[in-house]
Description:
The protein is mostly helical. The protein contains 5 helices and no strands.
Amino acid sequence: MKKIISIATVIATPFFVNAQNTNTPAIDKEIFNICATIFVVGLFMIFILVILKKIIDYRLKNKIIDKGIPENVISSILQTNPKENRNSNIKWFAILTGLGIGLTIINYTLPLGFHSLAIMAFSIATGFLGYYLFARYSEK
Length: 140
């Protein structure tokens, strides 16, 4: 319990110790737009990589079947976990829901600043936590 209180105190200290009184936002709108663009491009690249992986797996399966490899070897190579594929959709749902909630909160707490990045980090982390809890309880 002492560790939790100590960690919470250390994390909360910068919020209370900030003695600067500036009216300028901590992050310009241009910087925020650049970060958002990089994030969207990253998501798009991950999408393309997943599609390429699916295509390559499909080609590999076809070549293995065409070669006439014994069935027990094929089943051990091509063994997939259906739970993993099912949970993948839930994972993306949790991530995108966290993103949507974070962006909604940011919209109501304008102007953009350092708090916007903190809101996004906490909302995405909450989405991952929701997915983790779902995965843990769905195994039981």
